[in-house]
Amino acid sequence: MELHRGGAVSKIKVTDVRYIKYCPENDADTRYVVSFQNMTMYAREVEFREVSWIEKVEDRCIRYERPPIEAAATIALELSKHLKAISELLSKFEVHQTVAYYEQHKGCSEAYTWVTNKVGAKYWYWYLKCPHKTPSSIYIGKNPEGHRKRMKLARALSEAYHRLRKVGLRELAEELEEAAMELQLLGVEEGEREEVPLGNRPHFKLHHG
């Protein structure tokens, strides 16, 4: 990036720029406010290789911010790893069995029922009554609280399992990884081209008449 001020030209890296402001009410040599690293510079005119900027109005100035896409690429790679890890967790035996447990027992109702032993004595126990399922009656013991807590986890895990499977986590992870690595490779290639004289490279001029 070139900063034109007072007849002199300064060069800085576009990647170091936090934002550029164009303030038409400022003096000619300070109409452009360039913030980069921990410094602020002023210029009459700004030139740089073409890149997309986010534009917004701020304090009677037009502020141009570089979208942090390069930084987001690193986050995308990290996110890709987590998505793959989640995909692997969803494929575990314990998850499949818990989802199956929920499917088997959902829709069943609890019933406190008495049964008799060999000598005819009555005992009261909790059962699940599951119409249209086999088995239709499932013994759950003297206290149904354990079953309720297992079903609470099974329902939540089943919901997460089915929702995340619809997303296609592994495919999404691979797409993120490929796009991020291509962008990072582009950054390396552009860095290698920094040795080419600025005048031989396409550039974009921020210039307001």
Structural summary, described in words:
By secondary structure, this protein is of the alpha+beta class. It folds into two domains: 66 residues; 112 residues, no CATH class. The protein has four helices and twelve strands, in the order ββββββββααβββααβ. A five-stranded antiparallel beta sheet has the order 5-4-3-8-7, with no helix packed on it. The chain has a four-stranded antiparallel beta sheet with strand order 2-1-6-12, with no helix packed on it. Strands 9-10-11 form a three-stranded antiparallel beta sheet, with no helix packed on it. Helix 1 runs antiparallel to helix 4 and helix 2 packs across helix 3. The chain is rod-shaped, with a radius of gyration of 32 Å.
* Cα radius of gyration in angstroms: 32 Å
Helical amount: 25-40%
Strand composition percent: 25-35%
Into how many domains do the coordinates divide?
Answer: 2
Give the mean pLDDT.
Answer: 83
Count of beta strands:
12
Q: pLDDT below 50 for ≥5 consecutive residues: which ranges? A: 192-209
Order of helices and strands: EEEEEEEEHHEEEHHE
- Order of strands across the main sheet: 5-4-3-8-7
* First-residue to last-residue Cα separation: 20 Å
Number of helices: 4
Largest sheet: 5 strands, antiparallel
Please state the structural category.
Answer: alpha+beta
**What coarse outline follows from CA principal-axis ratios?**
rod-shaped
Quick recap:
With 209 residues, this protein is an alpha+beta fold.
Question: What's the arrangement of secondary structure elements?
Answer:
Elements: E1 2-5, E2 8-11, E3 17-22, E4 32-36, E5 39-43, E6 45-48, E7 54-58, E8 61-65, H1 69-90, H2 93-105, E9 109-116, E10 122-129, E11 137-141, H3 145-167, H4 169-192, E12 204-206
Antiparallel strand pairs: 1-2, 1-6, 3-4, 3-8, 4-5, 6-12, 7-8, 9-10, 10-11
Helix pairs in contact: 1-4, 2-3
